[in-house]
């Protein structure tokens, strides 16, 4: 991710592991206070103030890491990032319609050509639900396969940098 980060003009980089989302999980015991404890409004306001969110995630056991799930739980808040009250047809209305999302994902196993990984499918649905204007992705698959053995991650990232920069030019 460092290679991609350095190509941006004054980005704010946040490691979710170093935030409240790295410490708290939404469950029965935390439900009453979860959104206050993770400072949900702060994160929602950040998303409303930016044009582009670049989210990097690796697949763990067929899904996103728990810290990414915790982040989604913290920002998917009724009447703040989506609404049923504004619906004319019973479907949710996403309220983050300013947001362009770029997902940079990786997984150890290969992915069938022309298909999206489970984590990309899930994240894409989540960001559609909250109204993202566009959702783009760069998938890095098969990182635990023999053809990746000995590959320097930073050098590999440089081979995908142009793809990332082209996505950023769209916004």
Automatic annotation (TrEMBL):
Residues in Flavodoxin-like fold domain copies: 36-148
Protein name, as recorded: FMN-dependent NADH-azoreductase
Entry keyword Oxidoreductase: yes
Gene name of the record: azoR_1
Record InterPro entries: Flavodoxin_fold (IPR003680), Flavoprotein-like_sf (IPR029039), FMN-dep_NADH:Q_OxRdtase_AzoR1 (IPR050104)
GO MF term set: oxidoreductase activity
Enzyme Commission code(s) on record: 1.7.-.-
Keywords: Oxidoreductase
